[in-house]
């Protein structure tokens, strides 16, 4: 009985098969649960909103520290 590691080595020696790769890729894509259009739109809007809010927060903090450094260092 071959060990698990030896079996994997024997499989890799056989080489790369494009057909097996395409078949495996298709099987994996069939397992994917794709979002509905409504889910896609609402989640995209949430991401865009969070990016805008994060950018605004960074902008405000940067302006505050810029203002504070001019007051401290003249």
Automatic annotation (TrEMBL):
Record-linked InterPro entries: SecE_bac (IPR005807), SecE_sf (IPR038379), Translocase_SecE/Sec61-g (IPR001901)
TM helices/strands, residue ranges: 40-61
GO cellular component: plasma membrane-derived thylakoid membrane
Main location: membrane
Coiled-coil ranges (or none): none
Gene3D superfamilies named in the record: Preprotein translocase secy subunit (1.20.5.1030)
Membrane topology: Single-pass membrane protein
Keyword list, A-Z: Cell inner membrane, Cell membrane, Membrane, Protein transport, Thylakoid, Translocation, Transmembrane, Transmembrane helix, Transport
Keyword Metal-binding: no
Localization of this protein: Cell inner membrane; Cellular thylakoid membrane; Membrane
GO biological process: intracellular protein transmembrane transport; protein secretion; protein targeting; protein transport by the Sec complex
Source species, domain of life: Bacteria
GO molecular function (one): protein transmembrane transporter activity
Record family assignment: Belongs to the SecE/SEC61-gamma family.
Summary of subunit composition and partner proteins: Component of the Sec protein translocase complex. Heterotrimer consisting of SecY, SecE and SecG subunits. The heterotrimers can form oligomers, although 1 heterotrimer is thought to be able to translocate proteins. Interacts with the ribosome. Interacts with SecDF, and other proteins may be involved. Interacts with SecA.
HAMAP family hit by this protein: SecE
NCBIfam families named among the record's database cross-references: secE_bact (TIGR00964)
Function: Essential subunit of the Sec protein translocation channel SecYEG. Clamps together the 2 halves of SecY. May contact the channel plug during translocation.
Protein name: Protein translocase subunit SecE
């Amino acid at each position: 009985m071959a060990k698990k590691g030896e079996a994997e080595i024997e499989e890799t020696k056989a080489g790369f098969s494009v057909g097996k790769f395409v078949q495996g890729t298709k099987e994996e894509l069939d397992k994917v649960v794709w979002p509905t259009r409504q889910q896609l739109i609402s989640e995209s809007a949430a991401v865009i909103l969070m990016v805008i809010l994060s950018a605004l927060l960074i902008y405000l903090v940067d302006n505050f520290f810029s203002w504070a450094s001019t007051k401290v260092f003249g």
